[in-house]
Amino acid sequence: MKNLLLVVFAILLVAVTGCNEDDPRPENPQENYELEGEVTTDMTLDASNKYTLNGELIVRAGASLTIPAGTVIEAVGGQVSYIAVAQDAKIFINGTATQPVVMTSDDKTPGSWGGLVICGKAPTNKSDASAGAEVSGLSYGGTVADDNSGVIKYLRVEYTGFNYTEEKQFNGVSFFGVGSGTEVDYVVSYMGKDDGIEFFGGTVNASHLVSVGSDDDGIDFADGWSGTGEYWVALNSTKSGIEGSNNGDNGAATPMTNATLRNLTVYGMGEKPFYLKEGAGQVTIDNLVIGGLVDSKEQAIFYADSDDTYAAARIAAGDVVVNNVRFVDMAAGQTKAVEGLTFNENSEATGAGNGIEKPDWMPDALNKVNETLNVIN
Questions:
Q1: Whole-number mean pLDDT of the chain?
Q2: Which of 138, 196, 259, 270 could form a disulfide with 214, with the two C-beta atoms 3.0–4.6 Å apart?
Q3: How far is CA 133 from CA 118, 169, 179, 182, in A?
């Protein structure tokens, strides 16, 4: 047995088994590394190695974690294992269309590990943000709208959503107060126990997001998120495909959520396909294909709670704008929108690219769409 311990304050424990001087050695042996602890200096992983996440891995202020294309990180299931990036730290996920970075679990069931958490210094309307993110406990938020937490490109996360506390679960990817200097493009969340991808305030923009099979919402934005989302796909979520809110404690909190969303496909939800709640905020939607509601067919496609006076006020003020929407596979008599919300229908709307078919921009290596309920083929 040969053991190699590397401490860069992120604990990288290497265990290479069954070796002695007479054993044949492969020309390019794959090292097995255990990830846990803290990253306090710049660190780069190697895609040729195997990485096991065995607990929390936190990138601290002043440090960066670089994950090259083709890297696979496998979490130990059944415990609080997650990767978090603190304020003033950076993560560089440099996947490609043919070699994405994959974060998964050794237990291929939803909720078997935590997920990825990014904390930035951009504005949020949560007054207690400095007290810590609901998962990880790291501080987030501030006044730096163009804050830069790094680059996330071509990432797939799977089987996330472990309980952080009795009341809080991890999302696939959580953005807490992340700034517009951060690049987010081509991110897939597959079979998470909570939301697939969620924005808690911040100003980060995000393109080519896919959430498949989340046990809560597919994609969620809240707490004063002010950003642009383009080419989003949300499929087969237990609750909502997309959920948008302003603030759960004060629906009129400022800075108000201001979301600009373009080119969306939302299909196959259990409850509310597009749910506007807790004040909603200002939401502009253009080119949306939506439908396939599984349960609760009495709910409107665009839904807001009847007692949510703040959301109703935003809708009445014309702050929720929906243009070029195509409704598909609706139940007979199903309502399209909550009272007061107007929209412009367009039978030629393409949504994320090809309506309810797999969009051309989705690389085969990232694709988890065809592995779900065959909604998109």
A1: 87
A2: 196
A3: 10, 12, 15, 18
Residue 299: predicted pLDDT: 65
User: What residue type is assigned to position 236 of the chain?
Assistant: N
User: Which is nearest to 97 in space by CA: 206, 181, 208, 175?
Assistant: 208
Whose CA is closest to 223, among 365, 123, 366? 123
Average pLDDT over residues 216-231: 97
Per-residue model confidence (pLDDT) at position 147:
98
Q: Band the pLDDT of 14: cuts 50, 70, 90.
A: very low
Distance CA 274, CA 220 (A): 10
> Any idea where the domains of the chain sit in the sequence?
2-20+28-345
**Rounded Cα distance, 288 and 264, in Å:** 5
CATH of domain 2-20+28-345: 2.160.20
Contact 272, 302 (CB under 8 A): no
- Please answer whether residues 72 and 104 qualify as being in contact, where contact means their C-beta atoms are separated by less than 8 angstroms: yes
Distance CA 267, CA 233 (A): 8
Give the side-chain half-sphere CA count within 13 A for 270. Answer: 10
Q: Is 313 helix (H, G, I), strand (E, B) or coil?
A: helix
274: pLDDT strictly greater than 70:
yes
The pTM is what?
0.90
Q: What are phi and psi of 306, to 5 degrees?
A: -65, -25
Q: What is the pLDDT of residue 298?
A: 56
Which amino acid would we find at residue 147?
D
**Pairwise pLDDT comparison (116 vs 21), residue with the higher score:** 116
Q: Amino acid identity, residue 287?
A: N
Q: Span 224-229, mean pLDDT? A: 98
